[in-house]
User: Fold this.
Amino acid sequence: MVYRYIAYRESGELVKGRLNARTEEAAADLLSYAGYKVVNLKPFAPFFSLGKLANSFYRVKPGEVVLLYRQLAMLLESGIDIVSCLEMLRDQVSNRALKSALIDVIADLRAGNPLSAALARHPSAFSPMYCRLIAVGEQTGGLETVLKQIADYMEKEAATAKNVKNALMYPVITSIVTVIVIIILVTYALPAFGDLYNSLGVELPAPTKMLIDTANQLKTNGLFITMGVLLILILGMVYVRTPNGRYKWDEFLLTMPVLGRINHLSELAQYCQ
Assistant:
């Protein structure tokens, strides 16, 4: 892993740079051995990375993580050490992103880190909440049992999510079709009727005028409106990825009318389980 550092030489000169190390502790030790006094040390995350871009096309599915946890629990019960277990599982994994994560996890374990901390470095593949449960299993000596329980719960969670998606499929399709029909009516049908009534000298009702004016505005400034909406969505997605934005988004999900209560109960049920 690449780390960015700011440090002082023995002469008092301030230096900046990057170095490769397994862990942050190893990076600090390397700088200390080189005679540097570390001021700031943190992982270096480039804005654009070909490796991350390639792995983004290989999403880790929950079913793959469930299978990994079950196989890991079975191998641990047979008396094999955890590093050997993960090495065997790594060779069997076909998902590129998951295999890359397991390679890093094995390296962290060899560096002396616990499994929970090694898995927590890859939140896109391993849920932080489940990593905390694994940490509890490591401390209590029941890692195999915890892995099985996590796999069982993830399967139930995936089945529930699938049922919810199936239940919402019809309303979502109906809503999309409704919006498309309304756009077609407002864009093409209403202006034609408006021209007809104007030719006959009949005054249109106020709501109909508002709809026609809205349609004309969409036709005239449709490109700018679309670009503005897309820009707002992109900025919103970027903000949600920040810690404060994520907190605000989660707070909004919990305080939404009707759905907020459902989200709240769902989180409570997950926590209690």
